[in-house]
Design the sequence.
């Protein structure tokens, strides 16, 4: 679990790190939309190219980005098995009794797997290049119109920021608890599925207690600093758009236009 990349921040002084957090959030939303608009491998290839381009300008090692895929590895395998055997097709590659694998099912399974991987990688790149504070400020700024209807925008942004910040903290805490249990003779790698599930219980209980304790300490610290939410609250750093953000918007617009054109003129999966 110490290798989980989602929710962690990778400090660097790169082009992507210096982008306005609002630009990065909107770019991620646009990127997710284009991935779901993609209907073939050509469109997914364009999305992958844009991701690689942004990742190269982020300074984040690709090995650290690929670690984020580990969190959805089970979902990838489960989805692949379902689509591989249940998706109907005409060209049969392998058949045994009522089970058959078709050419169309194989291509569609690979297509969905690549789509899910790109979604996870794009989301991880946002958290790796944006601090929780900047992310909260960006969300609060983007949701500013909701303040007109008295929606607690600042509190929502703060909750999301704290949740992201707690992901690596609880991950490290889980590792410490597991090492402590192993030192007492616990074994988390042997036995069947039910044995492993039972072995997790001694981890979950101390982890929940630790999470509640940290939340209580955080609340006391905020009270001690006279935190009062968004009332008469100012900011030390003002969010401003720059020339880097203009380049990011142009890249996002080009990606969206290309995906729409491919969707109009190409229908085949490959």
Sequence:
């Amino acid at each position: 679990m110490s290798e989980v990349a989602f929710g962690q921040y990778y400090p660097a002084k790169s082009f992507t790190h210096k982008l306005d957090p609002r630009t990065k959030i909107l770019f991620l939303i646009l990127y997710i939309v284009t991935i779901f608009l993609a209907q073939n491998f050509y469109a997914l290839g364009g999305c992958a190219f844009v991701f690689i381009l942004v990742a190269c300008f982020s300074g984040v090692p690709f090995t650290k980005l690929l670690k984020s895929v580990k969190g959805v590895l089970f979902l990838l395998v489960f989805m692949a098995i379902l689509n591989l055997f249940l998706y109907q097709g005409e060209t049969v590659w392998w058949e045994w009794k009522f089970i058959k694998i078709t050419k169309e099912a194989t291509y569609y399974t690979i297509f969905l797997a690549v789509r899910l991987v790109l979604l996870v990688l794009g989301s991880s790149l946002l958290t790796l290049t944006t601090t929780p504070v900047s992310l909260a400020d960006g969300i609060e700024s983007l949701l500013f119109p909701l303040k007109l209807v008295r929606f607690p925008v600042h509190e929502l942004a703060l909750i999301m920021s704290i949740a992201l910040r707690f992901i690596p903290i609880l991950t490290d805490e889980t590792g410490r608890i597991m090492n402590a249990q192993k030192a007492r003779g616990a074994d988390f790698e042997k036995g069947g599925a039910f044995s492993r599930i039972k072995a997790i219980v001694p981890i979950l209980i101390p982890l929940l207690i630790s999470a509640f304790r940290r939340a209580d300490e955080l609340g006391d610290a905020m009270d001690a600093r006279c935190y009062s939410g968004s009332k008469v609250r100012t900011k030390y750093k003002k969010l401003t758009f720059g020339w880097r953000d203009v380049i990011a918007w142009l890249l996002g617009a080009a990606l969206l236009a290309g995906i729409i054109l491919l969707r109009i003129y190409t229908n085949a999966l490959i």
